[in-house]
Amino acid sequence: MDGGGRVVRSLNPFSKRQSNCDPAPSRWSYRMERLWLTPAFRKIVRVGMPSFLVIASLGVYFSDSDRQQAIADKYAEIRRSVEERPEFMVKLMAIDGASAGLNSAIREVMPVDLPLSSFDLDLEAMRKQVESLDAVKRVEIRVRAGGLLQINVEERVPAVVWRGPDGLELLDVGGHRVSALQSRAARPDLPLIAGEGANATVAEALALLERAAPIRDRVIGIVRISERRWDLVLDRAQRIMLPPEQPMPALDRVLALNEAQDLLKRDVTHIDIRNPDRPTLRMTSDALASMREMQGIKVNNN
């Protein structure tokens, strides 16, 4: 009101609105300000949302099958151009430690056709392939500088000739098959073993043959009987029958008798020492007939 009692209206149309405006923030503004002060929310807004938009854009871009195929072809082209560089190409193969026959067998089974990129070589599969050969005990395969595929082989050494169910075979000292043998005359330098299960006890057979060194020139071979014991086979159709337990002392006893009394020069076919406490001699038919005649026993030859 002015001094005369009249009401004076303000000339500013916003004066009333400003007078009624609450200076405090609204509820939503307060909540947004509190939420923005949260570190996790700020990280989501600043990092998460842009990352999501980028990933979504890439997903939409790469969802096209033509683009996918083009990218795959380009990647394969780049990779092949790197793998086929001259410094990565394997051109030669060298095999050390193998005989001529094994060398040829290894080259036949090797699943590679050189020249070939070293990235295309599966060395572990190649090692297993070479080790599958009977004559190979151990093998090492690696790629050397200059594009050389180096194969180092440890070959099994034949120790005996085994006459088994499948014919003649060469075995190493552990009883592992080395190769087949066409005839005994092909390896006369190796001792002959025979019988089922003899391949599982090659070491024992070799030990017995070594102990029989004094009569080595008469030994034809050694036979496994019932997978339990050994018979030492000699010329003149003689056989030393050894016990299943402690065959070494039993063989030593026979050798001692032979040295003292020339036992193996007598007309005996079998020296049965399976029972060391009661050794038995089996004589030839002619010697048995002569002995019976000397004892006055009539022998019927029919």
From TrEMBL:
Polar residues composition-biased segments: 12-21
GO biological process, one term: FtsZ-dependent cytokinesis
UniProt record similarity statement: Belongs to the FtsQ/DivIB family. FtsQ subfamily.
Region ranges (Disordered): 1-22
Natural source organism: Litoreibacter meonggei
Main localization of the protein described in the UniProt heading: membrane
Membrane topology: Single-pass type II membrane protein
InterPro entries, A to Z: Cell_div_FtsQ/DivIB_C, FtsQ, FtsQ_C_sf, POTRA
Domain POTRA residue range list: 88-156
Taxonomic lineage: Bacteria, Pseudomonadati, Pseudomonadota, Alphaproteobacteria, Rhodobacterales
Protein localization: Cell inner membrane; Membrane
Stated role: Essential cell division protein.
Protein name: Cell division protein FtsQ
